[in-house]
Amino acid sequence: MPTTLTVNGTEYQVDLPDDVPLLWVLRDELGLTGTKYGCGVASCGSCTVHIDGEAMRACQVALADVWGPVTTIEGLGTPNALHAVQQAWVEHQVAQCGYCQSGQIMQAAALLSKTPNPSDEEIDLAMSGNLCRCGTYPRIRAAIHAAADALGREG
Amino acid sequence: MPNWGKITRRTLLVGSAAIAGGVAFGVWQYRRDLPNPLQPGDGQATLNPWILIDQDGVTLIAARAEMGQGVYTTLPALVAEELDVAWEDVRVMHGPAAQAYYNEALMSHGLPINDYERTGFHEVMIEAMTVLPKMIGLQVTGGSTSTIDAFEKLRMAGATARETLKRAAAERLNMPLGSLTTRDGKVIAPGGIELRYAELAPAAAEIDPPRRVALRDPEDWRYLGRSMPRTDMIAKSTGTAEFGLDVRLPGMKFAAVRRNPRLGGGMLSFDASAAEGMPGVERVVDLTDGIAVVANNTWLAMQAADAVEIEWAAAPYPDTSDEMLNVIRAALDNEPNSMLRDDGDLDALDIAPEDREIEAEYTVPWLAHATMEPMNATALHTGDALDIWTGSQAPGFAEQRAAEAVDLDTDHVTCHVTFLGGGFGRRGETDFVVQAARVARAMQGTPVKVTWSREEDMRHDFYRPAAAARMRGVLRGGFATALEGRVAAPSVTRQSMQRMTGLSPSGPDKGHVEGMFNQPYAIPNYRVSGHLADLDVPIGFWRSVGNSFNGFFMESFIDEMAAAVQRDPLAFRLDLARREHAPSSGVLEAVAEMSGWTGRTPEGTGRGVALTYSFHTAVAVVVEVTDQGGDVSIDRAWVACDVGTALDPAIIEAQMSGGVIWGLSAAAMQEISFAVGEVEQWNFPDFDSLRLHNSPEIEVRILETQPHLGGVGEPAVPPSMPALANAIYDLTGERVRDLPLNRRLSFVI
Fold first, then answer.
1. Which residue in A has a C-alpha nearest to residue B649's C-alpha?
2. Please, where are the H alpha helices in B670-714?
3. Final residue of a domain: which of A50, A75, A100?
4. Rounded CA separation A140/A135 (Å)
5. Which of A82, B75, B569, B706 could form a disulfide with A77 if both were Cys (CB 3.0 to 4.6 A apart)?
């Protein structure tokens, strides 16, 4: 029986076994390839999405267990309508290879939604599960602070 | 960003009535012309292999793999600077695999000469070496050479195209050439007349380009020398950049693979009966050296691949990394393959009773690339042709190897290069491409994406080899009078070249001793020998290659020499560098100033310094560590580099800072080890890297004093590792001579 799934505001009927991780539903079935596969064991954060507003590793959530609406990087903002975090990423020229950045941005956006003005320690805690082999961390930190400032001004 | 695949398809639809096919000019023409690989479609014109003009604007071909290092920004900036197009109108694509995009700087880099003291003879040798890559179409991204290779070539391409467009405008308007100027994609004529390049391109493509065009004075640069907005940044911040793993084709299937974890051993037998009955599985393909499972979902394919029962043959190398290291250590006493430096006379050294003589041995482990994006390729075999979509650092080789694997002519194989989710040398290999080609042949007519699991990726790399060194030094009156270094490791150059070209170069292997023999130190008796150790473990180019181990050996030992005579390690290096190479002493002075180096650190804090000249760039690093309740915290790093001309400071800063984090990660915590012939690491929990919370704060200074361009992607890696080890020595008093350091102490994780 197909599973009903809401992703970026659109409802989908997915006909895959219950235990297929959300990551592979998004990527292979729905064609939402912005969410990346890095490790499959929740140790790199490349597949971070929001479920009901909370940052989750999509490689660890089985299709049958998705408990709320899903937001992926494609739903956070678009090239013509960037989210404040994406805007800060562009302004700070964060990405190098770029592969991990969808996950970094989703993690950072979830952090800022709960902690609008995070300290360095709070950023450390929230971001330590996201790996970047290019080593873009200094700019990630700067971009998170900048996005917090921008959201503060908006808010 | 235009998609090369679409343009190729469009071109095929309209036939190959190329408007300007084969027109190649400028710097292009002074040697043998290579055919222009761009086949413009209807309404498109190409003026040379780097420029495609149509009604939508100007597309610049980067022709190097964008793997994070910014080539999709800096290479187009070189063309755009001379062509005069507005930056926001520039579109970039990789372009096809073609001989036209050969990398001459890469081959000259392999010459066994000391890069920092080039002479006329060396320049001649470098010229000679450019012939080989042209012949074998070495369109490789590597060796931190992309910008060095492109610096003149691409500015010339832009300048000659601009002048040709002006000639077309002069003819059209019947006005003197001298009255015309260019700006933002237009030729400007007196009286407010403006002609868009797109209108002029078809006519320009028929005009013989000028043979000599003067390049602009750097004083007049608009784009070069500035931090340009990266052309890939918005796509990479919105999940819309297409990596190999993101390629989607109509009717595509998804495959997972398994190969022998005892690397190079074959497959004796397999039983796929359980896997074949699993959900989503369409087919299990026998690849003779492993299996592929094709399914309707990657995860289902991976589950089924794990369920295939396979009997593997033994590995062709020793069972354990300890045994391998014994083979490598033993090679230190073998006949040397190279002795690329032998200044003074080490054999007739007159050692006085008051001299200090020290010796030390060092080792480093095997290392994986562990790119964030696991190896993958998508392929479609249609019977007489093969299309491949993948992130490749060597698309020309990928096409050749894939063609051989499925018995097609190379002309019928097309490699479409996507963004690379990290390369670091790994994606110059073709194993994952060949594999996808073979799966696609078995699934003729159906496109298949082959994705490696992280575990498959970690355990089937072409590793940075383990290596060992034996160092000896003599000090007199606080100065180094002699340094003798012996390095032993398997030869990356020989194994890689054999794999890629079928030719294994004989003679001295420079890559094996780079970072030790060619360091800018005035030591009167200075000898370095390289000893090759034969082991059949797959090895390959890993960010900074031989420098990645020799930098650690050399700069740890230089530190030991300074300590042996109670000298400040930075001042000791400055004495050696000042008399040999000004840019190198310059970067040392810069990090001393940046870090406020005093040679003294408070209790609980340690500082270390290191300098390595590699990829034509001198880089000095100071690392500061502190003791946090028994764990070492890497708090700060200061980096100074001298790149000659800084074409894009923000990209250089990113590469230096990222290079340091790459090197510190390896030195602190990374190791690939073997047991029963298999790699013992499976995934990131076994092979971790620094993360945001335990990375240092990094400050970078870019100097521009040396007369030639230097590479930026790799040279920060080598000095970062010894700088950390030297900081640990300053903190703890213990000299750790074997990497990774976390075998001996624990880091904040």
1. A93
2. none
3. A75
4. 9
5. A82
Question: CA-CA distance, B6 to B79, in Å (whole number)?
Answer: 23
| pLDDT tens digits, one per residue of B506-516 | 889 999 999 99
> Taking the CA of residue B146 as centre, how many other CA atoms within 13 Å lie in the half-sphere pointing to its CB?
27
Mean pLDDT, residues A44-65 = 98
Beta bridge partners, B294, equal B255, B283
Across the interface, whether the CB atoms of A29 and B297 are under 8 A apart is answered yes
| Cis-peptide, bond into residue B740, ω within 30° of zero | yes
For residue A21, give both structure tokens: 């991780």
The CATH architecture that domain B4-103+138-237 belongs to is 2-Layer Sandwich (3.30)
List Cα–Cα distances, B16 to B11, B19, B63, B180, in angstroms. Answer: 7, 9, 21, 33
Optimal mutation site among A8, A90, A97, interface B, most CBs of chain B within 10 A: A97
Question: Which residues pair with residue B480 across a beta bridge?
Answer: B475
Token reading at B289: 């050296």
For the cut 90, the answer to whether the pLDDT of residue B62 exceeds it is: no
Kind and range of the H or E run holding B309: strand B309-312
Which chain B residues are within 8 Å of A46, Cβ to Cβ?
A: 372
**How many beta carbons lie within 10 A of that of residue B703, not counting itself?**
18
Going by C-alpha positions, the residue among B338, B300, B704, B352 that lies closest to residue B527 is B338
Distance CA B679, CA A59 (A): 24
- Equal CATH topology for B4-103+138-237 and B244-314+375-451: yes
The CATH number of the domain holding residue A67 is: 3.10.20.30
Specify the CATH number for B321-367+463-743; select among 1.10.10.10, 3.40.50.720, 2.130.10.10, 3.30.365.10.
Answer: 3.30.365.10
Which residues partner with B361 through β-bridges?
B470
Hey, what are A1's tokens? 């029986």
Mean pLDDT of B482-500: 93
Residue (of B694, B501, B174) closest to A125 by Cα position: B694
**Which pLDDT score, from 0 to 100, does residue B94 have?**
83
Q: How far is A37 from chain B (nearest CA, A)?
A: 7
Identify the domain containing residue A47 by its residue range: 3-75
| DSSP sequence for A75-98 | HH-BTTB--HHHHHHHHTT--SS-
Contact between B422 and B457 under an 8 Å Cβ cutoff? The reply is: no
Helical H segments across B344-453, by residue range: 395-405, 431-442
Domain B244-314+375-451 CATH (choose: 3.40.1180.10, 3.30.365.10, 2.60.40.780, 1.10.3720.10): 3.30.365.10
User: Of A75, A109, A134, at which residue does a domain stop?
Assistant: A75
Number of domains in chain A: 2
Q: Which residues of chain B lie closer than 8 angstroms to A101, CB-CB?
A: 236-237
What is the secondary structure of B628-639 as a DSSP string?
ETTEEEEEEEEE
Distance separating alpha carbons of residues B497 and B499, to the nearest angstrom: 5
Which residue type, as a one-letter code, is found at position B76?
P
- Closest-CA distance of chain A to residue B667, Å: 14
d(CA B230, nearest CA chain A) in Å: 7
User: Which of A38, A86, A93 is facing B238, going by the closest CB pair?
Assistant: A86
pLDDT at B712 (0 to 100): 94
* Each residue's pLDDT tens digit, B18-28: 222 222 222 23
Given CB atoms, is B276 within the 8 Å cutoff of chain A?
no
What is the secondary structure of B442-483 as a DSSP string?
HTTTS-EEEE--HHHHHHS--BBPPEEEEEEEEEETTEEEEE
Whether B695 and A138 lie within 8 Å, measured CB to CB: yes
**Cα–Cα distance for residue pair A33/B336, rounded to 1 Å:** 51
Residue pair B683/B737 in contact (Cβ under 8 Å)? The answer is no
Q: Is B650 left (phi over 0), alpha (psi -120 to 50) or beta?
A: alpha
Largest CA distance in chain A: 47
